[in-house]
Amino acid sequence: MKKLLFGVVDAIKAKSIQFIITTSFTLVTVLVVLFVGVMLYSKFSETAEQNAYLNTQQILEQVKYNLDSYLNGTTQIFELVDDKIRRSQGVSSEKLNEQLEAIVETRKDIVSIAVFSRKGELLMGTPAKPMRKNSKLTEQSWFQSAIDDPNNLSFSLPHIQNLFKGEYTWVVSMSRGITIKGAEEDIPAVLLVDVNFKEIDDLCQRVGLGKKGYVYIIDLVGNIVYHPQQQLIFVGLKNENRSLPLKYSYGSYVDDAEGDKRLITIKTVDQLGWKIIGVSYMDEIVTTKNEISRFIFWLLIFVIVIVLFVLSYISAKISRPIKMLERSMERVEQGDFTVNEPIRGSQEVEQLSLRFQLMMEKVRELMNQIILEQEAKRKSELEVLQAQIHPHFLYNTLNSVVRMVGIGKNEDVITTITSLSKLFRISLSRGKSIITVQEELEHVRHYLIIQKMRYKQKFEYEIEAQDEVLTCKTLKLLLQPIVENAIYHGIEHMADPGFIRISASMCEGKVLFQVRDNGLGMSPHVREQVLEGSYKSEGGSGVGIHNVHERIRLSFGEGYGLNIESELEVGTVVKVWIPCQHDEGQEG
Amino acid sequence: MGTINQYALYTLLVMVAVTTFYSCESRMDEPHPDKKKTVALIVRMKHGDYWRTVKLGAEMAAKEYDLNLNFYAPDYEEDSQSQMELVRQATLDGYDALVVAPSDDRVLQEAIGLTKSRVPIITLDAEGQLPEVNSYIGTDNYDMGKKACEKMIQLIGKKGHIALVGTGRSSANAMSREKGVRDVIAQDKQVELVPVDYVQLDKKLIGELTRELIRHNPGVKGIIALDASTSIGVAEEVEKMGLQSSIKIVAIDSPPEVLEYLQEGGISATIIQKPFSMGYLGVKYALDASEGKQVPGRVDTGTKVIDRENMFWSENQKLLFPFVK
Description:
The structure holds two protein chains of two kinds.
Chain A: H1 2-13, H2 17-87, H3 94-106, E1 110-117, E2 122-126, H4 141-148, E3 154-155, E4 159-161, E5 169-181, E6 186-196, H5 198-205, E7 214-218, E8 224-226, H6 230-235, H7 243-247, E9 251-255, E10 262-268, E11 275-281, H8 282-333, H9 347-388, H10 391-406, H11 410-428, E12 434-436, H12 437-454, E13 459-465, H13 467-470, E14 473-475, H14 479-491, E15 498-507, E16 510-517, H15 524-532, H16 544-556, E17 561-567, E18 571-579
Parallel strand pairs in A: 13-15
Antiparallel strand pairs in A: 1-2, 1-6, 3-5, 4-5, 5-6, 7-8, 7-11, 9-10, 10-11, 12-14, 15-16, 16-18, 17-18
Chain B: H1 2-29, E1 38-42, H2 49-64, E2 68-72, H3 80-93, E3 97-100, H4 105-114, E4 121-124, E5 135-138, H5 141-155, E6 160-167, H6 172-187, E7 191-193, E8 197-199, H7 203-216, E9 220-225, H8 228-240, E10 248-252, H9 256-264, E11 269-272, H10 275-290, E12 298-300, E13 304-307, H11 314-320
Parallel strand pairs in B: 1-2, 1-3, 3-4, 4-5, 5-12, 6-7, 6-8, 6-9, 9-10, 10-11
Antiparallel strand pairs in B: 11-13
Helix pairs in contact in B: 2-10, 3-4, 5-6, 7-8
């Protein structure tokens, strides 16, 4: 866990694979979730709104149905009462009274049944209760409508029944003009059936549209039949905009006149033209939306956390082997070539690790080879140096000097000793193994001077060089073994005077030394052995031409080295190829 | 193989986390018991249309603003002892705002003492401001007295003696109403006020007082009752004495008996208050105050003069007969 955390912190610091994987994947995931979330949200909220609309419609439909059937029921009662009165002989008959009383008894919602004359006198009433004073019944709307339109049943608005003594009750009055049989002729009268408003009130009160929503009813001209907040409207604390619902008989619209956005749905009761109006508050519908958006928000947070968690784990898993590989390479960079453990991880990384290991093996091999070569070089250089102080050569030279002193050739002694001294100076040349061509030629010249003294002018020599090669770099002591070879094997046993010609020149961009003698020459067989180093000569320093060949190839590569052309009894030409390298001015 | 197992483990962990997340979410969504505010409403009496209408208004507001309403009321009016008991009970039950119609100052003091300083208190129906009370919602009783007196003067033909009867001498409401009456009479030279009388809230005592008053002041043309109970008592006694035609009565409030007398002629007019508005506004402002909103210090819910002529007008019916029975 801790490692994971550190991994994440590390990853953020640098633009690591882990960081890239984590961020890009998180980004993609978040975008996808966001997209899906927004799509779902819009779909859900649309559905939620649609459902709210439908729901309200259905509830109102239900209310309308209930109201319709209730009003139908009361209408039937009214017709029944009307029928009974029509059939009976006058309103004062005992039988009619009993029948009507029975109706009032069974129907709890019938408050009273009464028949009034056109002047407002009570002709008959059930239940029989004394009339109140000051009821102004002829001015009441139900009475007026029965007089104005005697053939149609009219429903009044809910009002307080103040006709009879007893409790004041909220009623809806049904009235119609009738004719009753009088003593002589039929008398026009008004039949009133008061229905308790409680039934309708209950019916509407039970309807809830959400927590705050409600249903109210208005009549044809906009008077409130039922409103749960009627009190508030009467005292002026609330206002209900009734003008719009009045215009429509069904449908729904959104009203935001009261500050809150409210969905108003309208249905009309066919029988009376009453309008049932459902009011639901949009913020309650929107609650669903808010819930969804809140859910999506938390889901997003949750997804981000989980994705970050999982991705940092996965990316750590992916990047760890790469880091390990990097660490291995770092160790190699710092010089530790022993790195050898295989790294486990993805296929690519494993392949990379394998290749790296193979590469390291190669490097190790090459390094071993270089070490071997360096050793060989050193050995051969040492051999050359040893050859310089070869006791045989020194002994012979000093012998010659003694002899020259004996015969009094002081000039020659001076020359020889001087050359010897120069020879050694150049050989040592302060421990450097690389010298200029000029110095090399100088060296071989002194060598030839000494040898010429020793061999009593048995041969002549000539050294020539192009100017441009003089400053080139060359390995030390390249020519001496060749010249030595030429003297010992080519000229020493020759009867005629010998001649050695040494030249240095540029040829095809390389430096070419040529040592030519007119000695005995050698057979091809010997020539090969000389180059391979397997030829064992008796005299000489023992270093041999092979050593020279070997040193050049170790220092400069396979493209350089020696090349011998020889013909028996005619002479030998040894060509020495080295690359043309100029001094960079580091010669101290 | 180890890696695959680890991945499987991780997948499992994630799935467990998702399930936990979901179950938490759904559990969080079910009930929100702490979200709704609670308003305690303490009135003076359990019964009576007046207080039932207050309660109706309060319930309307509670439904509209989606809050819990705790309703407390003693069995009898002016029972300050049990009302104090109810204040304590309400405090135990807990509330975010208190709406109280105190029987007397002791109840109000008790309520202020028990209520934590940040919880707003709103008084209904009882005048008498204390700085701890956020708002008074109710009738302007002085104005009510004035209206009653003006109506009476109109009824008696601007001339004659008027008597004033009330229960509860100590009540601030009654004093304000009396002052309103007196101020109107003071402007009118032709109308005189016979001595004002107060009795205990007792039907028999009110009847006796009325009888005495009429006997001692035979010329009295009108009686203004200062509260609902007095109105009923006075009307009953005047009817018993058969003087309903000669003595006009102006009543206060609209209990069914008063309405009955009003229609039948025993009472000429009544000045009604708006208890529904009191209940509604009381709870509304209580909620506002508990949410730290500014509420008006005094809200006059208004009064209305009702006589035989207008009592069945449709806009008055709902005020006079608030219940659908």
